[in-house]
Amino acid sequence: MIHGKKIGVALGSGSARGWSHIGVLKELRQLGIEPDVYAGCSVGSLVGAVSALGHLENFEQWVRSLNRRDVWGLVDVSLAGGLVRGDKLLSFFRETGIDTRIEEMECLYGAVATDLETGQEHWLRTGSVLEAVRASCTFPGLFRPVCKDGSWLLDGGLVNPVPVSLCRALGADIVIAVDLNTQLVGRHSNNPPADKASVDGAGDGESNPFQRITSWLASATSKQVSRNECHEDNPGIMDVMAASINIMQDRITRSRMAGDPPDVLLSPRVSDIGMTDFERAHDAIREGQAVVANARSRILDISGLPLEVMP
To answer: Which entry of 13, 20, 51, 155 is annotated as an active-site residue?
Structure first.
């Protein structure tokens, strides 16, 4: 809290681009800003929870160490409502001691999810923080939906990609929002080539089931277009899914922010990071730090901090 005002961060969705939230939060701390309120959507709900619980530094070390093999190692394949159950990832975080109840957190915290049946926005402000994160991160078709209180929940990015409204509802007087989905419309996702035989130069050419599935999805429609109207390869299924989500989230974010703008909007330049490029943490974190550094004067001014806080 600064001068009696609660500072809140609204951390948006963006899959692997979400590692830039780490850089944003680190740089805000360098400015002397410790958020009182965390509102997260999808990957933003994960990074927000980790930071609110005081594990951001250890979490950063872990994500910086990830390679593509490590990422797929946390995947458990399922065909019931999605390709991935997500149980392995949740177990990993439980073992690190991050799991707790939202009501017991020192900071105010909330995550956004989407009700599959009604399409309504669902705010998760009580109960297990990991269950809230799991629901908010349930990318349609990829992760299995989460059942909570009789409702099936999906990714919050379908309804509120940058949850400024939730941040204010939790009591934030000043909202710093992070939008990861600008400049994405019209770009294909940066998935690695489908015929890559190994991961990070290791292995004997064999791949786990999830790799085989995603490789098939990426190349399922990669043949050359037979008609003259298009001059590029047909987009793969994963390209189509990612681009469609990007378009939807961009339009929703623009609409939501027009009616409820944040006090500071940060948009890291991470459009070149694909939705599954989780091993590119170094690039994403650096861009998160850079966007805060570039907005330093505005952030300090709106927060009521002296400009001399940093050299």
So the answer is: 155
